[in-house]
Write a structure and sequence with these properties.
10 strands, alpha/beta, single chain, disordered C terminus
Length: about 210
Amino acid sequence: MRAKILIDVPTTTIERVLVKRTFLSKVLFFGNRLFRHPLVKHGGWHLRTAAFSDHPAHVLLQTILADSLSDEHHASALTAYYLARGKSVWHAEKKVRDKLEQYVTRYRNIAESMRGNGYLADLADDEIGIAIAPDGTFIKVSGGNHRLAIARLINLPTVVAEVRFVHRDWLRTQRRERGQTVPERIVEGLAEYAPRIVPMGRTVCSASRGCR
């Protein structure tokens, strides 16, 4: 049964984001899956990162959530966002004309909900994706870029993140017990972040709480 590992992460600890990979790095990265557990990756992927504060979603939402800025500023920021995602100028400008008001309203509503309720998991199709580098630091990967950006911008202390994969060198530093699976080792290594293994069907299992 497919499952995911969720942890409660201090928002400010997710400082770096994995940058877009080259074709060769994608091939090598995919090759990890042929010989190892899909949650474990080796190689230098953790070195290809940038500051999350420079991510297009963070830059955009910094403008969207600023009460002092006008619709013109919002339109300019959304255009830049679509261009950064590889859209043509024509396509970016069309998306802004069609989506600007909807975009601003949607993400301001999410920010308001987070301010009142904190970060609630399972409200989207995916969770905030992270990976674990060899030294144990968190690296942002695909999924939830906008939600993480909002959480950072409103100073939300904690978010829920899904551990998509870990570096082999980090896993090797974790204690291993006989018969322990890779997900169980990862959970034990992240014990301070209230980890839980969540199978499809939303049954929650954790090292400290058991299953419920």
